[in-house]
Amino acid sequence: MEVARGNKKLHERVPVRRTAWKLADLVILFLLLALLLHRVLHDGGEPWRRAALACEAWFTFIWLLNMNAKWSPVRFETFPENLAESIGELPAVDMFVTTADPVLEPPVVTVNTVLSLLALDYPAAGEKLACYVSDDGCSPLTCYAMREAAGFATVWVPFCRRHSIAVRAPFRYFSSTPEFGPADRKFMDDWTFVKSEYEKLVHRIEDADEPSLVRHGGVEFAEFLDVQRGNHPTIIKVLWDNNRSRTGEGFPHLIYVSREKSPNLHHHYKAGAMNALTRVSAVMTNAPVMLNMDCDMFANNPRVVLHAMCLLLGFDDETSCAFVQTPQKFYGALKDDPFGNQMDVGFMKVGRGVSGLQGMFYCGTGCFHRRKVIYGMRPHSVREGREGTTGSSSNKELQSKFGCSNNLKQSARDAIYGNLSAEPIVDISSCVNVAREVAACNYEIGTCWGQEVGWVYGSLSEDMLTGQRIHAAGWRSTLLEIEPPPFMGCAPNGGPACLTQFKRWATGLFEILISRNNPILMTIFRSLQFRQSLAYLMTYVWPVRAPFELCYALLGPYCLLANQSFLPKTSEDGFRIALALSIAYNTYVFMEYIECGHSARACWNNHRMQRITSASAWLLAFLTVVLKTLGFSEAVFEITRKDKSKSDGDSNTDEAEPGRFTFDESSVFIPVTALAMISVIAITVGAWRVVFVTTEGLSGGPGISEFICCGWLVLCFMPLLRGLVASGSYGIPWSVKLKACLLVAIFLLFCKRN
Ligand SMILES: O=c1ccn([C@@H]2O[C@H](COP(=O)(O)OP(=O)(O)O[C@H]3O[C@H](CO)[C@@H](O)[C@H](O)[C@H]3O)[C@@H](O)[C@H]2O)c(=O)[nH]1
Ligand SMILES: [Mn+2]
């Protein structure tokens, strides 16, 4: 991918200064160590004090991991206007969208994703861009929606280009009315027409029903007759072949792909879908760059591909940029992040931080990859290949890596050695049969797909694992931060959806941690940089934090119930250390939120959600993986429900109070409900003892610190306590309450026995 760049630079790497933050990092580290030292020197050997020491040592370790990840941040500035000289030589991009379930992910949502991609600004977009939609649901409804979207795109894309529309997902764009001046007559007519066409599109999609589509939809949908989601042949449809269109400038090709599934072969969820798309696109358009998007996101900045090119093309050495990840931003996000899943601060602090190490993590969506990197190339083999010191791989080698399709082998050779012809593919439709062959469910058997090639299998967080493999091969990566934000997605709301998502992530991360892909091993045996591996470790240990946090959270209630203490008394030196630590730490976190432009409320909500997540989703993830490792259960990818109401421009949600916590019968709620109840009981018992039983003269009983700890927990778990007494979806179901009560009873017995 050599492009003449002239003398103008395409981007700049700007180190971010943070001297004050570094000092604060060290102060907190010092206080943590002081607390540990105090415990070692002064604490007795009571088990609860030993437990506290272990937990605090763990928290210190986590703090070190955090410090490492945030220590030396950089950001990238891009200058797409400097691409002008090489505009004719820009590489082609294949854009992938994955969808998996027409109910949880309404086709209208995916349609908007696709339309925003078809309308992107890129020179010769009609020839250089192609959009592939993977449908793991194998739903005629999704296919129909895509076909209708292609039809609507003939109106939508020219409209966006003609009027330089800023937001190119129709549901977002039409959710507000622009101000028309008197001179805008033409624009107003256009706008009204396109809007009504969009509304018709939405109605057609929503009114479509599966049986009549399949029966009366003609040959197009006959293929869907009698398919089962987990058992059907490959279905590929070229819904828009731009080479065959006769409309002026045109827009990207659109191809619908539902890969073959068989109940006997694992399909590896999204990673499997991405690999199928990679192969299908390889034999069709074989672009050297691939953009991947979840169906719940849309391109929010029409120039995003140009910005990404500044990073992909702008380094002297390709090794510096294997992929370009964009931050995940959310539209229609609830105010003050009540569910703690907007992750703005994390992206900013950790994202820029790791950019200063080996590069941003791959986050699964909104990411531009180089095809040859996805194909498992190492930086040095790419370099040697270009310099001609090694001949191109033998046919046998290619076959063992990529499988037996000759077309795929040839396309892989072209992608790896950069012989991609400047001429765009002539006839996509003629490639469908080959594409069907490589989308077969047994195609990967005996190949490197899912291991050294493509998206890596073996974790529900396939994104982190795949990104880590790329870094371990010695590549670096970049984070693209631009205004307006490149992509926007929807974050789940409500207790069940949020915690399910957190649980899936944590499960996936823990799976990586205990596998042979452990980042420390990657540092020892591969080219993953040490500090980068610590940064990976910081996220992978999420679920491992759960047992420690749970233990620490139980210490307060335990001491109040058993009339003990685990924190230093006000009279001890240690008390001042603990006090200074909690003040310093909380101020630090608060300042991070303020610096990123968030409110105190958002900061508190995130803190609270961290405690809730840790005692629910992370804990369950921890147990799931332990059970899976022991062979008792299987981890499955639970798809996050997407809120359709947000996608048809209708902002009314079903919930009366959108930020309020909701519940269902899921077991994630059991431990955290129990913990909430325990905190309340403990505080009550503790207070009762202070008032009615004089403990004076009896040293060793709980002090103010234990009360503060417990009180803090009660505040954090307030949403759960409200859930205990509320009804409907705001109330915790009885089955959960009963199981939680059982846990509480066990804990109380335990406290009494000791
Ligand atoms: O069998 C499956 C399951 C999921 N998906 C797709 O995967 C994407 C992500 O699924 P979603 O339920 O939206 O999960 P999120 O938690 O929102 O996704 C985050 O977490 C995933 C890893 O757990 C990453 O893959 C995603 O990119 C990242 O945005 C969606 O487009 C799905 O259609 C499939 O294609 N096939
Ligand atoms: Mn999603």
UniProtKB/TrEMBL annotation:
The active site is at D136, D463. The keyword Membrane applies. Mn(2+) binds at K270, D294. Keywords: Cell wall biogenesis/degradation, Glycosyltransferase, Membrane, Transferase, Transmembrane, Transmembrane helix. GO terms for molecular function: cellulose synthase (UDP-forming) activity. InterPro entries: Cellulose_synth, Nucleotide-diphossugar_trans. GO terms for biological process: cell wall organization; cellulose biosynthetic process; plant-type cell wall organization or biogenesis. UDP-alpha-D-glucose binds at E105, D136. It is a multi-pass membrane protein. The keyword Transcription regulation does not apply. The chain crosses the membrane at residues 20-41, 575-594, 615-637, 668-692, 704-725, 731-751. It is found in: Endomembrane system. Its main location: membrane. It holds the Pfam family Cellulose_synt. GO terms for cellular component: endomembrane system; membrane. This is Cellulose synthase-like protein H1. It comes from Oryza punctata.
